[in-house]
Fold this sequence. Notes:
- About 40% of the residues lie in helices and about 15% in strands.
- The strands form 6 sheets. The protein has a 5-stranded mixed sheet, with helices on both faces. Strands 13-14-22-15-21 form a 5-stranded mixed sheet, sandwiched between helices.
- The protein folds into 4 domains: about 1-60 and about 70-255, Protein tyrosine phosphatase superfamily (Protein-Tyrosine Phosphatase, Chain A), CATH 3.90.190; about 260-460, no CATH class; about 470-730, Protein-Tyrosine Phosphatase, Chain A, CATH 3.90.190; about 735-825, no CATH class.
- It is α/β, with parallel strands linked by helices.
- This is Paladin.
Amino acid sequence: MYCFRLLRRDPMRALGYASLKPSLKKIVESADGHPHEVGLVAALRSGEVLGSQTVLKSDHCPGCQNVSLPERVEGAPNFREVPAFPVYGVANPTIDGIRSVIRRIGSSKGGRPVFWHNMREEPVIYINGKPFVLREIERPYKNMLEYSGIDRERVERMEARLKEDILREAERYDGAIMVIHETDDGQIFDAWEHVNSDSLQTPLEVFKCLEDDGFPIKYARVPITDGKAPKSSDFDTLAANIASASKDTAFIFNCQMGRGRTTTGAVIACLVKLRISYGRPIKVLLDEVKHEQPDGSSSSGEESESNATRLTSSTVEVRTRNEQGYAFGIDDILLLWKITRLFDNGVECREALDAIIDRCSALQNIRQAVLQYRKVFNQQHVEPRVRRVALNRGAEYLERYFRLIAFSAYLGSEAFDGFCGQGECMMTFKSWLHQRPEVQAMKWSIRLRPGRFFNVPEELRAPHESQHGDAVMEAIVKARNGSVLGKGSILKMYFFPGQITSSRIQIHGAPHVFKVNGYPVYSMATPTIIGAKEMLAYLGAKSNARVAGQKVVITDLREEAVVYIHGTPFVLRELNKPVDTLKHVGITGPVVENMEARLKEDILSEVRQSGGRMLLHREEYCPSSNQSSVVGYWENIFPDDVKTPAEVYAALKDEGYNIAYRRIPLTREREALASDVDEIQNCRDESSACYLYVSHTGFGGVAYTMAIICCRLDAEVNFGTSSVTQTMVNGDPYSTPEESLPSWTSEEEARRMGDYRDILSLTRVLMHGPKSKADVDIIIERCAGAGHIRDDILHYSKELEEVPDDDDEHRAYLMDMGIKALRLVF
Length: 826
């Protein structure tokens, strides 16, 4: 790492050339023998950490104390207490400031235990009792980028080496070291500090001395990159520390300014304390504070940004009364809506989280930071550089809030029981997240395409009017509070105008049925219960007293929650986006089925409260305007009228249909994973006559799964392992000798046939690679009625060529989808 830092700061020296040394004449011009210029001193530095072109900057700068805070502690800027919790926040204090904070919270030698968490990842050193931080001379206001993501052991080793570098350099200057300070107007000036081994301490040494002096204090370093969300392992470290401490322990968090990372640490501590004290599910505090920031607080998150680029609440108002007719709120970000309803206790846990965030918002409200940066990003008159900064920072705070929601749900589950003595299960947050790929997929969607979460939706640009019937219906939708059917959610009938239907196989109630030519493989869009019965009867799955039905393996590929009411499928939608699919990319079968079970409970609860009826929605087409609209209507419902897909197919099996049902969520938006291929091809059943795949529209990602099972059936035929398959596959040739492969006469034709560089490279390294590709190409062509996988790649590549240079968001989307399509073929 030192070599990389040296290469960036002093490339000539890193390559073996001597740097240009400042002349000795300039150095000796000072009366005390010390150089006048900080640049000269920085250029001469040669330590492992305090290297060339680095400086030591005072951590306390003018204006670091927020004047709106009601309390001041000398030497400890921005000290505050979280109401009703033994949790405190502070900027990086002096050594005297640390002692003052300990006294302020009621501790003393042999008194109340204190657990201090230092959240900084940048190296800090105490000189004569005051904190200094390592910076580059050309960027004295900014943290050094090469330390991003550093762990505790490394940063503490660096601080120990920094101390050695300072002592070594001080020998050259009669026991003094040059440091820099910041004036009230942001100017930098240098000064000399006399040092020795006693006046120079690392943070670890400072707290060790306090402990040796009899103070009941424990110290932990949890390095977090400024402006970014904590890693899952950081959550685990903090949770374990808090859960293992005694009940009367006071928890103190600090970063540089005591704002961003400190606030996040305080929120995590309060959540864990709430869980330990009251068990699960974690609930909203009774004296919940309002979702507003105290006067003078800031939502901007950077600890050390310059005044020139700082985005504060004084320059940009977070929310206005009328943003082109509608005030965009945090719940208008679909991602947050989806993750809240993904978990059993998501709504309650997020309410508790929001209450905690508000209690910890003396300097920063994490929710409001997201909205503030979104506001800046959507101001077209702001220069592009500022908008890009706002987008990146807003995405970081959105991910931070997103992770806190997931962490709250983790605390509200049995996974955390063992950490607080309430059960045997002791699963870390990191492991818990690893078992939920749908959450990981949501997180990556923030990083890959943040702009889509911050753009003002088209439906919010126009004056906000009810488009869904009368005000009573809209009020009912907004008052919903189920764990899945929550505020602003509607149940929309699955069938819609313009839906694709089959041209060959007509099954009433089962749109877009398709059969792969030469294989016992079928697909269909989401059917009604009657449609499912007719489709299974068509496949010969219905048993009677004399003949057993042919076994059909049904694989449901839908990633969104579906429920049947009166035999008709309904899907979950948002009131303001009723036609947008609410997929959970990466979700597993058990999780989506759990969501559907909870959705059913929400429906039955609402039916009981409303006297046996339910507000539903459907899409209607108006020929005169040539447009579709979503309208609400009332339906009388009994408990037996509501079923989940798993219950529907279980009932069909009880009625004598010879079926095996599995839920394997898979769509085009999902990454191609080897585990998905295994799960699909493992559905192969020697006793099965047919394979039926159910998806949202019966078109798209379903073609990928059909191709997989066809490849599996092909392999069994070729190796002679399946007599059933041999009798069902017709005599059409579906393999092409390698010698007969055509030579493409144009790049367009080569791309259409999938002859991309990575695909061709794969065929060269595989045994019988060209033959395998030829076989797969034929299967892809046969499955094209349900979606053409190769054509998807070509479509996205052509679209990418047409994207304007300034449309980075759309370019990123097309690149992402094109790569995913390519990986499916790969």
